[in-house]
Amino acid sequence: MKTMEKHKKLRLSSAIAASALFAASGAAMAAPASLTLQYSCQFPMVGTHTITAVITADMPEVARVGEPIGDITIHADTSVPDDATAGLMMVSATTIEGTATSFTQIALNNRTIPVEVDLNVPSSPVTMGLTLPATGIQPSLTFEEGDQGPATVEVGDLRLHMISRKANGELATPPIGDFTTDCTQVPGQDNVLHRFTVEDAGNGGGDNGGGDNGGGDNGGGEPQPEIPAISVDQETVNFGDVLAGLSAQRTITISNAGTASLAVNSVNIVGGNGAFEQSNNCASVAAGSSCSVNVTYYASGEGSQSATLVIESNDELNPTVEIPLSGNSITEALPNISVSQTSINFGEVWVGQSQQQNLTISNTGTAALTINGVELASGLNAGFMIGSHNCTTVAAGSSCSIPVTFTPNGAGAAQGSVVISSNDPDTQSITVSLSGEGKEEVVVEPTIIDIAMDVLGLTWIRAGNYEIDLVGRIDSKLNISEGTFTADLSLEPAKAKFQVSKLLKSLTGEADVRFEQVGETTGTLIDGKLTAQSTVHIYVPRANIKILGLPLPVGGGKNCRTSEPVVINLATPHGEQFGPFTGGNIVGLYDLPPLQNCGLLTSTLNEFMSGPKNEIGLNLKAILDF
User: Fold this and answer.
1) CA torsion angle 254 257 260 261 (round to 10)
2) Poorest-pLDDT segment among 253-257, 332-336, 513-517
3) Before 175, cis peptide (omega within 30)?
4) CATH architecture for residues 2-199
5) Alpha carbons 433 and 413: distance in angstroms, whole number
6) CB burial class (10 A; 0-12, 13-18, 19+) of residue 505?
7) If residue 443 lies in a helix (H) or strand (E), which one and from where to where?
8) Nearby residues of 157 by Cβ (< 8 Å), 6 or more positions away
9) What percent of the chain lies above the pLDDT cut of 70?
10) Contact 32, 193 (CB under 8 A)
């Protein structure tokens, strides 16, 4: 193992020299690269919006096979839509930070290299027109034979993990406080950040070439000589306790980590008075190959014995490898207990749930180990428990498992211990400490925010083929954690003008229309899609028909209204988005029940008012006070 370290140091020195040469030339070849991309991102509450990222970096114009290009610093400035920023402000978020992960690929002559770069987004104050800066490092790359030719750096999709905080440092209300969103590039964009060329090794010539500078493989000079490099998988071998008259065997692997054949000239055991013997198949070991040395310990008498395995080879840096050998001969077979761990930490476990870990008991002695007891000495009230097991007698060289579970009864730290007693003459009992922490689910109180919106729209009455302009206001209470809301809808009185007869265009009608909400408007706002149900009575306090320009009352009155409440279902149109802090469009269909209590001409009035499949469209615009 020590020999391998020597070889690594030699190779590291060559690599540092090559990197220094490249750095000297690479600085001159660096070129500024810049790219502006738009991404479509799904934000909590406000739905899908487009962000713009401006990506910049200094990248090499030329790279060479076998030479690292060095780490590259990537900068990105990302603009946040005002709708999302308004959402942050409405939940009292004053700062935002996080990580932007950019998925990029290097497109080469015959392959592509995926590159994932994490950009750190430092804490920034939340204000309208928010732009988030981000910085990250693209790890150094080294190109291979076959990569020569033109190459491009192509920027892919983006993942944002953002954390917003209140002024006191606490997380803002879920789901805005801590969220992750995958952003996809808007189609049709050029996503190439940089174009460069991969050349053969040593094409730089000049001062960076071989010649008097030595250069080696990196500078086009004389190639490095091929050399063997010996390594062994064990630096010491301890056979432990072995009953006198018996033997134990271990295998040592010799490997050649060099580039030339390794000649193993001799393998000998020095010392030990014949207690250790070896056999091997090692003579010549090809580069990258290995061979085995089998060492046997013959225990005799009583007490410890030692020797040294000496390996001689043609490795010029490490021609002699010495491995200490030891063993302990005993005259009486005895058990020896050991456990896989002397402490078990279950970490955080939800109250009411369980977590299990296994405790392994091993017998490293030469006689059977009798387990006299496995008891929970403390911690029963804290939620610790020992499960059923078969740990009674453990043969020499064998093991068994004991399941230990933690089911916390409440929140907070918990402690306990397991005591294992056995017939081990040296260690008659072992104590294993237990620890864990009960974790209770935090019930987050719903965050309700008040949002007011102006309402502007119209409804088309199918029976009379006319439209009614709608103007009003809606005051809502939005539960941003659940995406639900309740609201009060207030529509101003309106006028309906309709054609009484298709043949007599001068015969027109006019009615005053008033809306009265029944109960609350309810609905959901999830991922930028709003659904709402509103119930109203429609009153017609006055209705006239004009004949030759003279108004003729045909009904109405303070009790003239729809016989049943009108149920209006509204939703965001397909392909559109609704923002709680900006607004949007909603549309729907509804049936208009017959009018009642409108006088002698109620049936005439219903011909122009009541009927199914009436259309409604509203535009809601948020009224913000910040």
Assistant:
1) 10
2) 332-336
3) yes
4) Sandwich (2.60)
5) 14
6) exposed
7) none
8) 39, 103, 182, 183, 184, 185
9) 88
10) no
Non-local CB neighbours of 267 within 8 Å, separated by 6+ positions: 278, 280, 282, 293, 309, 310, 311, 312
Tally the residues of the chain. 626
pLDDT class for 179, splitting at 50, 70, 90? confident
Q: How confident is the model over 437-443, as a mean pLDDT?
A: 82
The DSSP bridge pattern shows strands 429-439 and 343-350 to be: parallel
The CATH code of domain 230-330 reads: 2.60.40.10
Is 559:514 a contact under the CB 8 Å cutoff? no
How far is C-alpha 38 from the geometric centre of its chain's CA atoms? Answer: 22
Phi, psi of 351 (to 5 degrees): -60, 130
Using an 8 Å Cβ cutoff, are 581 and 624 in contact?
yes
Dig out the tokens for 104 from the structure. 């990029």
Which residue type does 189 have?
Q
Residue 157 CA to residue 101 CA, distance in Å, equals: 9
Distance (Å, whole) CA 478 – CA 572: 17
Q: What is the 3-state secondary structure (H, E, C) of 550-595?
A: EEEEEEECCCCEECCCEEEEEECCCCCCCECCCEEEEEEEEEECCE
519 Cβ contact list (under 8 Å, min separation 6): 535
Instruction: Provide φ and ψ at 12, rounded to 5°.
Output: -60, -40
- DSSP 8-state code for residue 6: H
Q: Helix or strand or coil: residue 27?
A: helix
CB 377 within 8 A of CB 419: yes
- The DSSP code sequence of 377-391 is EE-TTTTEEE-----
> What does each C-alpha distance from 117 to 18, 20, 74, 296, 580 come to in angstroms?
26, 25, 8, 53, 33
DSSP string of 290-317, one letter each residue: EEEEEEEEE--SSEEEEEEEEEEES-SS
Asked if 328 and 375 touch (Cβ cutoff 8 Å), the reply is no
Amino acid, single-letter form, for residue 363: N
Sequence letter at residue 128: M
Q: Which of 142-146, 163-167, 213-217, 325-329 has the lowest mean pLDDT?
A: 213-217
The 3-class secondary structure across 76-132, one letter per residue, is EEEECCHHHHHHHHHCCCCEEEEEEEEEEEEECCCCEEEEEEEEEEEEEECCCCCEE
Question: Once rounded to an integer, what is the mean pLDDT over residues 174-188?
Answer: 86
> 337-439, superfamily in CATH?
Immunoglobulins (2.60.40.10)
Q: How far is CA 396 from the centre of its chain?
A: 47
- In 3D, which of 249, 186, 141, 240 has the Cα closest to residue 36? 186
Per residue, the 3-state secondary structure of 182-226, as one string, reads EEEECCCCCCEEEEEEEECCCCCCHHHCCHHHCCHHHCCCCCCCC
